[in-house]
């Protein structure tokens, strides 16, 4: 049961971090004709939707409560 507590703690920490840390995303659009290649690379930093972050926090807390065991 201690492993469930540790996994819950990790999920909870990821859920809290997902509120603040954006996820980088890159896209490349290119056209090539023979030896010529022209392209544009765009970089975006998007945050995880708040609903996903809330679910991660709730699931992590639930796993911690379920994995605390009886001592």
Can you list the strand order of the major beta sheet?
1-2
CA radius of gyration: 20 Å
Range of strand content: 25-35%
Class from helix and strand fractions: alpha+beta
How would you spell out the order of helices and strands?
A: HEEH
Shape: elongated
Averaging pLDDT over every residue, what do you get?
A: 90
Poorly predicted runs are none
Q: Tell me the number of strands.
A: 2
Task: Note the main sheet.
Answer: 2 strands, antiparallel
- Kindly, what is the distance between the CA atoms of the first and last residues, rounded to a whole number of angstroms? 11 Å
Share of helical residues: 40-55%
Total DSSP helices: 2
How would you describe the overall organization of this protein?
With 71 residues, the protein is α+β, with helices and mostly antiparallel strands. It has helices spanning 2-20, 50-67, and strands at residues 23-33, 36-46. It has a two-stranded antiparallel sheet with strand order 1-2. Helix 1 (2-20) packs antiparallel against helix 2. The longest helix has 19 residues, at 2-20. The chain starts with a helix and ends with a helix.
């Amino acid at each position: 049961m201690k492993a469930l507590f540790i996994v819950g703690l990790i999920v909870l920490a990821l859920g809290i971090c997902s509120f603040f840390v954006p996820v980088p995303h890159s896209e490349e659009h290119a056209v090539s004709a023979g030896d010529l290649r022209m392209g544009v690379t765009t970089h975006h930093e998007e945050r995880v939707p708040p609903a996903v972050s809330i679910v991660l926090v709730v699931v992590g807390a639930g796993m911690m409560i379920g994995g605390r065991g009886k001592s």
